[in-house]
C-alpha cells in the first residue's frame, strides 16, 4: 500500500524499544506523536484520521496521540496538540477535511552531524511527553528524517519507534506502487484538461489556438501523464511535456503548428520540472526553496512566449499550482481510502 519502504525503520526501532521496556520490568504505555510535512495533499488528513482512530483502538499500548502544530516546527518548539481532547466525530471528520488540519512545514533537518542540536531537541521533547511512537507523514526527505530520529534515539538510549507515512502528489517515493495524494491530483488534472480542451475547441475557429496547463512534478512526470486520461487517441491533450525528457524547442513548435493545422487548436500539458538539454529548468529562477531545491517560476508562460514569438498564435495558459493538490471536493475515493489505510497500517 505504499508504507513498505519504512518497515525496516520501524523494525529496527521496535527491537530497541523492547530492550528499553524490559529494563523497567515490563511494558510501559507510551504516547504517540504525529506530524505532517511538506506540501499538503487533498487526502493527507485521511492519514491523520487513520493514525488517531487506530491508536484509540490500542489503548493498552498507546496512551495519547499528540500532533505537531505546523509539523516538525511544532515539535521543536514544543507546540503540540493533544488529540485525545477531540471528539470521535471531530477525528472522523478529518477523513473529509482539505488542507493540513494540524499545519505542515517545509523545514528540512539535515544530517545528524549538521543538525544534531535539532535532533537532540526532538528527543528532549519526546522524553518530556513520554513519546514512544513518532509518525511522520511526508515525502522522501521526511522518510529520511524519521530514520535519523530513530538512529539518534537509540544512540542516546531513548529508543523510539519511527514510522514514515508516505505522502506526495508527485508519486515519486521509492518502493511504493503509488503514493497517497497522487490519485486525487491525477483526477483533477485529467478532468481539468478535458474541460479546458472542450472550451478551447468551441472557440478555436476565431479565437484561442493554444492552451497550456502547467502541473506539478519537479522530477517525475506522473501528474503530467495523468492528463492523458482525458481523451482518446486524437483528443486533447495533444502534447505532454515530461521532466524526464529534455525539451526540444524546434520539435515542440513544429508539433504545435501541426496540431493547429489538423485540429484548429492545440492543448499542451507541461510538468513544472521540464529541462533544457543542459539540465537547466526552463522555469528556474536562480533561488532555492526551504529544502534546497531550485525554485521554479512558471514554465507555462515561458512556453506561451515561445509560441507567440515562433508561431504568432493566440494563446492562454493556466498554472494549476495549489488548486491541483488541494481539491478535496473531487478527491479520488481510492486515494482517500489508501491514505487512511497507510495511517492505520503505520499504527498496526
TrEMBL record:
Keywords: Kinase, Magnesium, Metal-binding, Transferase
Boundaries of every Phosphofructokinase domain copy: 34-345
One BP annotation, GO: fructose 6-phosphate metabolic process
Coiled-coil blocks: none
Cofactor: Mg(2+)
SUPFAM superfamilies assigned to the protein according to its UniProt record, in alphabetical order: Phosphofructokinase
Family annotation (InterPro entries): ATP_PFK (IPR022953), PFKA (IPR050929), Phosphofructokinase_dom (IPR000023), PKF_sf (IPR035966)
Keyword Endoplasmic reticulum: no
One GO MF term: metal ion binding
Keyword Kinase applies: yes
Pfam families: PFK (PF00365)
Protein name: Phosphofructokinase domain-containing protein
Organism of origin: marine metagenome
